[in-house]
Structure formats: C-alpha cells, structure tokens
Design goal:
5-stranded antiparallel sheet; 7-stranded mixed sheet; single chain; Rossmann fold
C-alpha cells in the first residue's frame, strides 16, 4: 500500500503513538492543544511541523486544515468541532477516536458521565467525522464492563488506553478495504451527550441526599476536578467520601443540623445530610 499522508490534531498520546510508529503513514503536520498530556509528551522528542494551539485559535487552525494537503485527518481530543463538509470536499478521510462506547456519552468531556449517568460499562470508538458531534459512521469500537474497583482515575486510564486499541484496529480495517469502508451507522437514539460543568460539580449538603452526593463525588473524584460545597460559609473541594452505616454514630449525631459538620477527626470529617451521615475522606479548603 502507498504511504498515506496524515495530519494529527488533539491532546492525547494513544492514537498519536500508533500513527508515528506505523510504517504505513507519514505524519506531515501535528496540531497539539497547549498544556495537554500530548504537549508534555512531545517536549523532549524530535518531531517536526508541530503547531501548539489554544482553543482561542480555532478559526486559524481550521483555515490551516482546509488549505493543507493530506490524505487523512486524525482527531483525538480536538477541543472544537471540525468543518467536516468543507474538508470532505477535498476527498480527505476524517477520523476521530472517542473515549466512550458511542453513541453513549458523546461530547467534549464525556468520561465524568460514566458514574454520573449510572453506566455499567466504558469503551472507545473510532468513527468518521461528520458535521455533528461524535455521530459519524463507526469503523470499530470496543466495550468493557465496569467492576466495583474502578474509580474515576481508572475510568480515564482504561478509556484512553482502549483508544489505542480501537484506533489501531480501525486502521487495519481501512487498509484491508483500501480505505473504502463505509462503517456502521450510529444509532443516536440509544445514546446521550455529557459534558462536565461547574453546575454538575456543585454539592449542596443541605438538600442533596447521600446517594446523589456520592454519585457526584465519584464522578469527579480526581485531583484536578473534585466537587464544590459550602459548609457554614467555608468553601471546600471534595474528592472522596463514603456513607456512615454505624448505628451508634447515626444516633449520636441525630440532632446535628442538616448541612453541618458533625465530627472532625484526623484528616476526615463527617457531615449531616437529609438522610444520614457522610464521611469526607479527601478534600481541600478553598480561599
């Protein structure tokens, strides 16, 4: 097969590594989101034709992509919507790899939605880019059932690791079909969008019950995210919590006002909620 010229745009390492380590593709231009994992990864490596961009550079980057000559565009973590119709006019193949089992959890920051939307599986998908968000025909995808030992940090690791697997398999499928593979139409009625927002990360211990509070905290339970709550005019960021089942403690603090701290011990504290007690295990105080 003739070597294909590829442009890469995104913020993650997996698909980028597959491309640069393949003998079938020449990566002619690389567009990397600033301060991303991929930006840090390439700093000590000798790659050419690299453009570091911010989300504010959207128009400039899109105009550049429209005018570049290449066979395939590979997106993996591009923070904005690419103009598929304009790029397809030039017979370019447009591929995106997304860290969920599409059509489930489409969007820019979908992985917090795994716990937030009560999914019991995760996955990754390589698909064609069209004019909508994460909706083009599927080339290849894989799904993995969740186990009880998976937290939000492992959601990120597994999903991004699986992106490499599905992208590599997708390239093999395209190669076997001489890049004429149509793919499988995505049934958008089965899925949903999810994007991380500050509103979703807000806790209210005077109103939220234990189940809702734990779901939110688990959904954003990594050091760069967390949930935000105000207790007695003090602002906190919460990363890990668990419910209190001990009957003595439930009885001991039954008269504590809802939303107040019932006990502080060591690095933990216990808060009274509408339906019980919540132990806050990992947290930080905000100014």
């Amino acid at each position: 097969m003739l070597k294909k010229t590829v442009v890469f745009i995104g913020n993650r390492v997996g698909c980028f590594d597959v491309l640069v380590n393949s003998l079938n593709y020449e990566v002619s231009n690389i567009f990397i989101l600033e301060n991303s994992f991929l930006h840090k990864y390439i700093k000590d490596k000798n790659f050419k034709n690299i453009t570091i961009f911010s989300e504010n550079d959207k128009d400039t980057i899109i105009n550049t992509l429209i005018n570049l000559e290449y066979d395939i565009l590979v997106s993996n973590g591009c923070p904005f919507i690419l103009p598929a119709s304009k790029l397809k006019e030039q017979n370019k193949i447009l591929l995106n790899t997304h860290p969920t089992y599409l059509p489930h959890l489409r969007g820019a920051t979908p992985l917090n939605g795994v716990f937030y939307k009560n999914y019991n599986f995760i996955g990754a998908t390589t698909h064609y880019i069209d004019d909508n968000i994460d909706s083009g025909n599927i080339i290849y995808q894989e799904k993995i059932d969740l186990s009880d030992d998976i937290d939000q940090g492992l959601i990120y690791f597994i999903s991004f690791d699986l992106e490499k697997v599905v992208f590599k398999k997708s390239l093999e499928i395209l190669e076997d079909n001489n890049f004429n593979y149509i793919g499988l139409k995505m049934n958008l009625s089965d899925g949903c969008y999810f994007n991380r927002t500050e509103k979703k990360q807000q806790l209210d211990f005077t109103k939220d019950n234990i189940e809702l509070s734990l779901k939110k905290i688990k959904s954003f339970g990594i050091s760069t995210q967390g949930c935000y709550v105000t207790i007695n005019s003090e602002k906190y960021r919460v990363f890990e919590a668990e419910s209190i089942a001990n009957q003595y403690l439930l009885d001991r603090f039954k008269d504590v006002l809802i939303g107040d701290i019932a006990l502080v011990y060591g690095d933990n504290f216990i808060v009274k909620l509408v339906d019980g007690l919540l132990k806050i295990k990992k947290w930080s105080k905000l100014d």
